[in-house]
Design a protein that fits this description.
disordered C terminus; nine-stranded antiparallel β-sheet; globular; two-stranded antiparallel ribbon; 396 residues; 15% strand; alpha+beta; disordered N terminus; 31% helix
Length: 396
């Protein structure tokens, strides 16, 4: 997958000693008008990032954002803001954030590892590994593990009796199983894409059942341990808990800490740092001796169409959404948001470039625009000779 290998190896070394280029916390102040929507990027868009982060944290005082860029010329990390209005520690590369739905990539990676070791097959019926759970069937077709992982199971995003995050936090496995026992699929499994937290939750439960151990333990053994992602965990140790930036809602109010409930664990329960996520992207881009190289490749070997209404995310792989660019090949991405956090991972294997955004504010408009803007930063990195256009990369 990697075409610019040496820079990624250098980035892995840099991760051991990186410090944020802008870590001074923003002074708390009254909310201002939202940061402007960003249509175009300047010649060196990554040089504009500190100012843009300052604008976002000014609109949302008492919150923080960490951004990492990895590319052929090296690695840059930017951070701005603080843990909370009552905790003025600056956020940085080692600050823990909830990953929200970016967790789905890692749940899918556990699946890939178990497939590669012959413990499960992608086409296995999920019911095979969910004893006691009555899985819905339509036209004689059962929901398979690959249906769950690609959000083509026919299951909805969330149960209708869990309409908001507050109720989801108290939603138990028993209620989910009761919902599944009476749910009628409206289309055959595998026929159509629909975003589904339920599906990934069931995938994690099935894999844990097959392995005979809790899913967090399974993830640590199969993914975090082999890849050296020491700060990417479901269960925060006390020292890691001290580095977790509290989540904030869209009004910048602090949300009380509560671990993600078991019913949503595989869909959004991971915590991590910018350093760990940059290391993960570096491993996605290489090197060749990555211990999970074949697992990572398997994630992208599955290709199911997403709705034509989402042209920039045209296909669903295992965990990742895969979009297309005019000249640079696939754009592989996953976003997460909820319970007071937002996260964003994207990389382009053809150019060896990637982006990480972690924030403890759920502010979809500002951070969504900012994530789109960051794609412009990739244009500032040198491109392979075959795709060089004016010293930058065209990403659209």
């Amino acid at each position: 997958m990697l075409k610019v290998g040496s820079a990624v190896l250098s980035a892995l070394v840099l991760l051991q000693a990186c410090t944020p280029e802008h870590s001074r916390p923003a002074e708390p102040q009254a909310a201002q008008s939202p940061a402007p929507k960003l249509k175009t990027a300047p010649a060196r868009p990554d040089d504009e990032i500190p100012g843009l982060l300052a604008k976002i944290t000014a609109v949302h005082p008492g919150t923080g954002i960490v951004v990492g860029l990895i590319g052929p010329t090296g690695l840059r990390i930017f951070s701005r803001g603080v843990f909370d209005k009552n905790d003025q520690r600056p956020v940085g590369p080692d600050t823990e954030f909830e990953l929200a739905s970016v967790t789905k990539v890692f749940t899918s990676l556990v699946l890939a590892d178990m497939v590669r070791h012959g413990e499960v097959a992608l086409d296995d019926p999920a019911a095979k590994y969910l004893p006691g759970v009555k899985m819905p069937i339509r036209n004689g077709k059962q929901i398979t593990l690959v249906d769950l992982a690609t959000m083509t199971s026919g299951l909805p995003s969330d149960p209708p009796d869990a309409p908001d995050e507050e109720s989801e936090a108290n939603y138990g496995l028993g209620r989910l199983d009761a919902f599944l026992a009476t749910y009628k699929l409206t289309r055959d499994p595998g026929a159509e894409w629909e975003y589904s937290n339920i599906g990934i939750t069931l995938l994690a439960r099935a894999l844990a059942s097959r392995a005979g151990k809790p899913f967090p333990t399974l993830f640590n053994e199969r993914v975090a341990g082999p890849l050296g992602l020491k700060d990417t965990v479901f269960d925060l140790a006390p020292e890691q808990r001290s580095r977790l930036a509290p989540g904030h809602d869209e009004t910048s109010e602090t949300m009380p800490y509560a671990p993600v409930p078991e019913v949503l664990l595989g869909a959004g329960g991971l915590n991590s740092t910018a350093n760990d996520m940059l290391k993960f992207l570096a491993l996605e881009l290489g090197p060749a001796d990555n211990p999970l190289k074949d697992d990572l490749a398997l994630l992208l070997s599955i290709d199911r169409p997403i709705s034509p209404d989402i042209p920039d995310q045209a296909h669903q792989a295992l965990g990742w959404a895969v979009g297309a660019t005019k000249t640079l090949g696939p754009l592989i991405n996953k976003e997460g948001g909820g319970f007071g956090y937002q996260s964003y991972l994207v990389y382009l294997p053809e150019t060896g470039t990637g982006i990480v955004v972690l924030s403890n504010i759920f502010a979809d408009d500002e951070l969504g625009d900012f994530g789109d803007y960051l794609l412009g930063a990739i244009k500032a990195w040198p491109c392979p000779p075959s795709t060089t256009t004016g010293g930058g990369c065209e990403v659209n």
